[in-house]
Amino acid sequence: MKGNQDRHARPAHTRRPDGPGLRLLAVAVGILVVASLVQTIVAGVVAIRFAVAFSALIALGELLRLNLPGDREAAPIGTACALAYALLIRVGPVPARHSAFQVVAVTGLGMILGALPHLAVGRPARLAGMSSRLLAVACVALIFRPLAGMSGLVRHWWVALAAMALLVTVAWLVDVFLSACIRVASLRARFWVTFTDELHVQGPLGVAVGASAMLIVFAAEAMGLLAVAVFIAPLLVTQVAFRRYAGIRATYLQTVRALARVTEIGGYVEAGHADRVSRLAVAVGRELGVAEPELLELQYAALIHDIGQLSLHDPIPGGATVLVSLEDQRRIAALGAEVIQQADIQDSVAEIVRRQSDSYGGPAGSRGQQPGPPLSSRIIRAVNAFDDLVGSSADAGRAAEVIDRLRLDASAEYDPDVVGALGRIVARRSTLPA
Amino acid sequence: MGRLSRATWLYIGTVIAAAAVVLAVSPYQGISWSHLAVLAVLFLVCESLPTAIMPRRVAWSPGYAATLASVVLVGPAGAALVGAVSAFALRRGPSVPQRMFNGAMYALSAYCAGQVFLALGGHVGVPAGNSFAQLIGPFMGAAAAHVIANYGLVAGVLWLTNGPSPSAPGGRSVLDLRLPLPDLGYAVFGLLIAALWRVVGPFAAILVLIPLFVARWAIAQFADQQRAYEATLRVLCQAVETKDFYTRGHSERVSRGSVMIARAIGMHPERVEAIRYAGMLHDVGKLGVPTKVLQKTGKLTEEEYAAIQLHPMRGLEIIREIGFLDEALAGIMHHHERIDGRGYPMGLAGDEIPEFARVLAVADAFDCMTSTRSYRGARSVAEAIAELHRCSGAQFDPAFVDALVAAVEREGWQTPEAPVRPAGEPVEAAAHDHDDPTVPLRVIGTR
Predict the structure, then answer these.
(1) Quick one: which of A92, A101, A194, B136 could link to A39 by a disulfide (CB 3.0–4.6 Å)?
(2) Interchain contact A159–B (C-beta under 8 A)
(3) CA-nearest residue of chain A to B190?
(4) Which residues of B touch A234 (CB under 8 A)?
(5) Can you give the pLDDT at residue A364?
(6) pLDDT grade, residue B163 (50/70/90)?
(7) B207/A211 Cβ within 8 A
């Protein structure tokens, strides 16, 4: 097992090194922040007390960053405070007259301050997330700051409320769009699929952040600066709830991994097989444009696709299901699905595992009579065969040979599209430095 | 509500009557009816949503925010009216008497809160811009009064139905003082709603509650995942037990026994939870031991004995990455250590052995002795206790043996039924069990 330690430590979504697009974004945002800082200092800071207070709150929010499922991060409190500063109309009786540049400068400073402790303890800086959040805030500030002094907005709260709701939505969409672009670049996913995934995942938290931003604006107007800190409280509750959710999701995934490891330690399959199959299956799924909820199911199913072997009295030699008879493959798949159903993992996962033994063309003569196995099953079938034949060897030539062999079998045994995607990923992997 | 005693009906009747009197005789002059209507609708929405239960049985109650905002905005009588609306919550569960009691309870506690608010110098009505600071003191008093009154009234019903020791199924006292704290937290949000009312009217309530509803959504997701997680853990245990049908249910029972010991010695609830998992998974490493060794009839070779001795480490390998308390992991790894230092895998002695491991060892041996094995029948609980006492101090920690004995005497112990052999299939029967203190493993070349 020693040799597998680093393999297990690697996250499920292996990221490519940050691409040039991401670097461009970070540099552009950096320039924007520096320019805003210079402009603000030259023009003079307006209402320095508010600026300092909001900067401190944004820093606090950045410090309390949150990891969302799927290797995402968010800083709900920081974002809400930054949006509130961009949307501020007045603090108590004093109208807020700061410029959009000052908003960007204050937000940028706060974010950097809040990120420093993370860097100090050796966590990644996460420039991508920070850049997209800052750009979203900058958009809102650019649109709203010139309007903030308008008499209509100040007199009718409902006009202000509507304008703010609109702008908060714009900010959210900008943030989602940018995060989707970043994910597309780093995970090699399709844009539209990723964008809708982001909309789904960021939706609930985005609503909470938007509402809190407006809440803070009105609280500042009604009760002055001190109240702002108090009105973060509801968002704090949300943050705690999300943290627990993300925590249990991670623990759950670890438990499924442990279940997968059971077959390895029991000597039924080769060590690291489940982990490799799940990572490769997720990559293939992403290549084929599978959306995130199904991708998660695919990941679970791939991890425990061999669980049915536990019920065998004697392990299959080498654990390679590709080498045993079709009937045995079916039996193992059915037993596995039974185990998974007991585990209360979604029924779809059990179905994926059950159908992994079905060949793509179906039994001879039955083509077209019954619906074929689901895409996830087809992916696992092909990836499992690939891994059974290649194993942990890193030899690119052997991998290519196996792909060719699967191609020959394709259309009868394996889905040609899946094998094609698998071939592209394996080819890409062999050209990339490890 | 099932069958209730006459005293309970009397109590419920009294509470409802008291609420009716309060609602009937209170003066309603000067109350803004439009505010009251909005607040009542708000409260009804909060109450109508199914209650998400937090893992530690804390109900999520945004309703407090609405009633306490009413205390400030429409005074005690208005707040009582808002509270009474709870009777009409659009939830399917409660029966008519339950609904009436809920309404009466909220009405009375909101009224109490309102009176406390006034007594502490609070002013009823939409707060002015500069009055936030003066509002805080009276409001906190009102919130405390609301929560305490509510709990008192509910505790009364529980006391009358469950008898004088109100104890929840989990062994936790219903009157646990930690319970009202989150409610008090939610109550404070009422202050935020009241304070913003002047600026954005009822939107204040919506803006405050949106993050809370999102939080609640996240908690529901959390509960879902928690359920799936526990089920997966159970499957992990069952996977172990497929190896030997005589040990079926062993993990669950060891888990139960460990929890009994842990409770008896007054362990913190969070650690009790951890030891519950540790008990469930303590033998997971047996999966790494070849079936033929586990079921071998004759003496074991040195190699086979080593394989058995290694199973706690194998278990650790499987579950190391699950985000448990480290204590549970240590317990699983060392559950075959002996107080005299002759155990495995490390040969730790006395206090060197982690507490969890010493607890697990006692529960493990006790369940093994009281269940049927292929090579012997089950022993009686009394015999098993005698055996535990005999090995106490050498193999087991005497404190935990005593704790288990006391707990078993108090709560009883459900011994498993003798397993029925699956018909037809020839089953290899083991001639030993590594957990059995009465039949030590025999290794070739010793004794």
Answers:
(1) A101
(2) no
(3) A234
(4) 189, 192, 208-212, 215
(5) 43
(6) low
(7) yes
Inform me whether the pLDDT recorded for A83 exceeds 70. Answer: yes
Gap between the Cα atoms of A335 and A263, Å rounded: 13
Distance CA B331, CA B350 (A): 14
CB contact under 8 A, B192 and A219: yes
User: Cβ B242–A311 below 8 Å, yes or no?
Assistant: yes
In tens, the pLDDT along A21-30 reads: 777 888 888 8
SS3 state of residue A253: helix
Looking at this predicted complex, what is its ipTM?
0.78
- Region A241-259: mean pLDDT is 83
φ, ψ (nearest 5 deg) of residue B342? -100, 15
CA of B16 to nearest chain A CA: how many angstroms apart?
Answer: 33
Chain A residues with CB-CB distance to B285 below 8 A: 265
Residues of A with CB below 8 A from B217's CB?
204
Report the alpha-carbon distance of residue A57 to residue A54 in Å, rounded: 5
C-alpha distances (whole Å) from A132 to each of A25, A28, A139, A176, A177 are: 8, 11, 11, 8, 9
Mean pLDDT (chain B, rounded): 76
**pLDDT for B54:** 45
Q: Nearest Cβ partner of A249 from B201, B225, B322? A: B225
Tell me: pLDDT of B186 over 80: no
Give the percent of chain B with pLDDT over 70: 79
Residue type, A165: A
Look at residues A218, A202, A244, A165 and name the one whose alpha carbon lies nearest to residue A76: A202
Contact B379, B212 (CB under 8 A): no
Task: Give me the pLDDT at residue A95, please.
Answer: 80
Mean pLDDT across B84-95: 72
For the stretch A31-46, pLDDT in tens is: 888 888 888 888 887 8
Phi first, then psi: what are they for B384, rounded to 5°?
-65, -40
CA B250 from centroid of its chain's CA atoms: 22
A·B CB contacts under 8 A: 167
* Nearest alpha-carbon partner for B309 in B397, B434, B430, B394: B434
